[in-house]
Amino acid sequence: MILPIVAYGHPVLRKVAEDITPEYPNLKELIANMWETMYGSNGVGIAAPQINKAIRLFVIDSEQIIHNLEEDEKNDYPGDEGVKEVFINAHIVETGGKEWAYNEGCLSIPKVREDVNRAETVTLSYVDENFTPHVRTFTGVTARVILHEYDHIDGVLFIDHLKPLKRRMLKSKLEDITKGKIRVDYKMTFPK
């Protein structure tokens, strides 16, 4: 089932999400709905706070980015084959490499795209949908998508990484999103 995505200004987007246990109600169904919602809105990742759940859960599919790159662009992301994975109770172990800029957007902040600097690599500890523990290092575009979704479970948005002047320039667009004065081709929930 495709779920509505909460829009900028909704308080759940600013909460630090809680770890969950395998007994979390209807977890498999929730994960399936998150995949469907992400693909239905042409996203490459979605975090539980974006569907109004303040839990440490996100899904990403960076394979679709990597597979759609031109051959010469693939050289820009050596070692990044992309992943399609569920991340539960994720916590950053470390980030590394050079920071690099990439134009990001967010399903909760539609029609706003900006260059954001992020670390080249991220090492995460997390459990998958079967609660099997992992500690893995990701690089390139995959690391970026993970860091973007990880920010969501920490109550951070990609626009928080922008310089103050750039954020001020976006103020009216962000206000329009909060007021529901935008059109998107996926379901959204706007703050009251």
UniProtKB/TrEMBL annotation:
<keyword id="KW-0378">Hydrolase</keyword>
<feature type="binding site">
    <location>
        <position position="152"/>
    </location>
    <ligand>
        <name>Fe cation</name>
    </ligand>
</feature>
<feature type="active site">
    <location>
        <position position="149"/>
    </location>
</feature>
<dbReference type="InterPro" id="IPR036821">
    <property type="entry name" value="Peptide_deformylase_sf"/>
</dbReference>
<dbReference type="GO" id="GO:0006412">
    <property type="term" value="P:translation"/>
</dbReference>
<dbReference type="GO" id="GO:0046872">
    <property type="term" value="F:metal ion binding"/>
</dbReference>
<dbReference type="Pfam" id="PF01327">
    <property type="entry name" value="Pep_deformylase"/>
</dbReference>
<feature type="binding site">
    <location>
        <position position="148"/>
    </location>
    <ligand>
        <name>Fe cation</name>
    </ligand>
</feature>
<keyword id="KW-0408">Iron</keyword>
<keyword id="KW-0479">Metal-binding</keyword>
<keyword id="KW-0648">Protein biosynthesis</keyword>
<comment type="similarity">
    <text>Belongs to the polypeptide deformylase family.</text>
</comment>
<protein>
    <recommendedName>
        <fullName>Peptide deformylase</fullName>
        <ecNumber>3.5.1.88</ecNumber>
    </recommendedName>
</protein>
<dbReference type="GO" id="GO:0042586">
    <property type="term" value="F:peptide deformylase activity"/>
</dbReference>
<feature type="binding site">
    <location>
        <position position="106"/>
    </location>
    <ligand>
        <name>Fe cation</name>
    </ligand>
</feature>
<dbReference type="InterPro" id="IPR023635">
    <property type="entry name" value="Peptide_deformylase"/>
</dbReference>
<comment type="function">
    <text>Removes the formyl group from the N-terminal Met of newly synthesized proteins. Requires at least a dipeptide for an efficient rate of reaction. N-terminal L-methionine is a prerequisite for activity but the enzyme has broad specificity at other positions.</text>
</comment>
